[in-house]
Design goal:
Largest sheet: 8 strands, parallel, barrel
Low-confidence stretches: 1-27
Number of helices: 12
Number of domains: 1
Radius of gyration: 21 Å
Order of helices and strands: EEHHEHEHHEHEHEHHEHEEHH
Mean pLDDT: 88
Number of strands: 10
CATH architecture: Alpha-Beta Barrel
Helix content: 25-40%
Distance between the termini: 62 Å
């Protein structure tokens, strides 16, 4: 990948060189998970995957996961959009850069946002090259199946690792008629299977299967030669991914069926903010220990 370069405001930047340098970040014996290592976990110990959008959260998650996805879900989670559709390439690059720079272990995958890759394979390459060169991430993820197979092949042939995403694909929410489970009838199941097979045959190193019925997710996991990562899929999948803010209880009151909340940090933040407000209004905060010049100097 050392020969991959794009023109930026800073001149020519070799995406492969930047990615390699950051991928070899070492702290003791800790090295970043590579694509071949990720693929080698097919059928083994399940792969642990979460989303990350900011440096502090990425740093906390990094020791515990195999992959961090800088997902375009940041549009809803971080920016408060109604969907992922308004997310820009610049936003993905900014958040991807923060996550890569503050992690050492996890494989980092960055979503290509809506409109950045669908027009043509060359357009997808331009977007993916920008993401990889400016963030140092290891791979990109894109949504779609049969219709995106040529694009996946085009990227992979040019040294860009691609993770696929089939089933419920949020960027196609308008065409799908909303955020609902997929594969409920035979025709839809066949299409999802064809989509997954097409992008894997095109060279995707892994595929996310979102909100599909359990038997179909189990079948895809058994049939496909690459790791299948479930989100509302099946416990039989080769790995699982969730939106971190969902499992921490930070994102809204609605909890999708496939989410398990491992903490209720939203409630804790609400309580902390309420306590702070009460103390400020009553002048209990700040106290003498929080201000300067209230203690006699020693010596």
């Amino acid at each position: 990948m050392a020969g991959l370069a794009i023109e930026t405001s800073d001149g020519m930047v070799a995406a492969g060189v930047v990615g390699e340098e950051r991928a070899l970040s070492v702290s003791g014996d800790v090295r970043r998970v590579s694509v071949p290592q990720f693929m080698a976990r097919k059928g083994g110990v399940p792969l642990v995957c979460l989303t990350a959008y900011t440096a502090p959260v990425a740093r906390l998650l990094d020791p515990h996961v195999d992959m961090l996805l800088v997902g375009d879900s940041l549009g809803m989670v971080v920016y408060g959009y109604d969907s992922t559709l308004p997310v820009t390439l610049a936003q993905m690059i900014a958040h991807g850069d923060a996550v890569v720079r503050h992690t050492k272990k996890a494989l980092i995958v960055v979503d290509l946002p809506f409109g950045s890759y669908q027009a043509s394979p060359p357009a997808a390459f331009e977007a993916a090259a920008a993401v990889m060169s400016r963030t140092g991430c290891t791979a990109v993820k894109l949504e779609g199946g049969v219709e995106m197979a040529d694009t996946v092949a085009y990227l992979v042939q040019r040294g860009i690792p691609v993770m696929g995403h089939v089933g419920l694909t949020p960027q196609a929410v308008n065409a799908l008629g909303g955020y609902r489970a997929r594969g409920k009838d035979d025709a839809e199941s066949v299409k999802i299977s064809m989509d997954a097979r097409a992008i894997v045959d095109a060279g995707a190193f892994s595929v996310v299967v979102e909100a599909v019925r359990e038997p179909l997710a189990r079948e895809l996991t058994a049939d496909l030669p690459v790791p299948v990562i479930g989100i509302g899929g099946s416990p039989a999948c080769d790995g699982q991914i969730l939106v971190t803010d969902d499992l921490l209880g930070l994102f809204g009151a609605f909890t999708p069926r496939f989410v398990k909340r491992y903490a209720e940090l939203g409630e804790a933040i609400d309580a902390a903010a309420a306590a702070y407000a009460t103390e400020v209004r009553s002048r209990a905060f700040p106290g003498p220990e929080h201000v300067f010049g209230t203690k006699p100097r020693s010596g």
